């Protein structure tokens, strides 16, 4: 890591959150998670960000595959975004993000909830 770069990509996080608010403003609440995933990917792409959806990560144990995780989105190869349509975030959602970060060898994820009229989000840091 370049010592002149911020430890966490705040500008990237702000862009993703801004896109999430735009999607929420346009669609409102009540759709399935996949609808928000597609819309958010579209909005991120319109803003020039590199987005990969449904990114698989293989879990190894002593060099052998023992499972797979699939993150909703990977932005700019450095930020995992996990989308939810739930009443409230749970400890399981936070643990899910931490496991994705560990599997991907990344440090930062955003957990975004589109269930309510106002988008909720949480920054998850691994390590």
Write the layout of secondary structure elements.
Elements: H1 10-27, H2 33-46, E1 51-61, E2 64-75, E3 79-84, H3 91-104, E4 108-113, E5 120-125
Parallel strand pairs: 3-4
Antiparallel strand pairs: 1-2, 2-3, 4-5
Helix pairs in contact: 1-2
Your description of this structure?
With 127 residues, the protein is an alpha+beta fold. It has a single domain, classed as Lambda Exonuclease, Chain A (Alpha-Beta Complex). It is 36% helix and 32% strand. It has helices at 10-27, 33-46, 91-104, and strands at residues 51-61, 64-75, 79-84, 108-113, 120-125. Strands 1-2-3-4-5 form a 5-stranded mixed β-sheet, sandwiched between helices. It is globular and about 45 Å long. The two termini are 15 Å apart.
Task: Summarize it.
The protein is of the alpha+beta class. Helices cover 36% and strands 32% of the residues. Helix 1 packs across helix 2.
Identify the notable features of this structure and list them briefly.
Lambda Exonuclease, Chain A; globular; disordered N terminus; alpha+beta; 127 residues; 3 helices; five-stranded mixed beta sheet; 32% strand
